[in-house]
Amino acid sequence: MKEISPSKTYRVLEPGPIVLVSTMDNGKPNVMTMGFHMMIRHDPPLIGCVIGSWDHIYQALRKTGECVIAVPGLDLAETAVDVGNCSGDRVDKLQRFGLKTRPAKDVSAPLITDCLANIECVVVDGRLVEPYNLFILGAKRLWVNEACKEGRMLHHLGDGIFTVDGGRLDLKERMVKWRHLP
């Protein structure tokens, strides 16, 4: 075994697929790419998201308390990387990258219709924002795009290296302790 810096821990405990986060602030939509998130609870569904104070969306999320988390498929891999490489304070990223949107039902942030799924969220706990940039979001609505042909998701391992979802392994019959969960 070879020891490496603990600062690289995120490369082995990758939290989930790369997502796009959209907000609306003063009538202006914005989007960013995010890789640091986690499910916290099933019911009610809570999601933890780390969004740094250096990100333009950070201020909009603090101010409005709402966002949309959109899950892109592999077909949007290059777009997701490109969205993450520029700032919404200088460019309209939705327009620049041709992302299609539609209004959400419960939040002002737009749904990104090119994505596999969209989750309308509101900040339910901001106590960890100051020390850790950690927003606790409550999922209000979940939209799934059944028209997407590409269903594989993208997972960031650091330094621009990604893994892609592949096949599935169905072990439902062995999950006897968790059958009560939806």
UniProtKB/TrEMBL annotation:
This is Flavin reductase domain protein FMN-binding. GO terms for molecular function: FMN binding; oxidoreductase activity, acting on the CH-NH group of donors, NAD or NADP as acceptor. Keywords: Flavoprotein, Plasmid. Residues 11-163 form the Flavin reductase like domain. Its cofactor is FMN. It comes from the Bacteria. Belongs to the flavoredoxin family. It holds the Pfam family Flavin_Reduct. InterPro entries: Flavin_Rdtase-like_dom, Flavoredoxin, Split_barrel_FMN-bd.
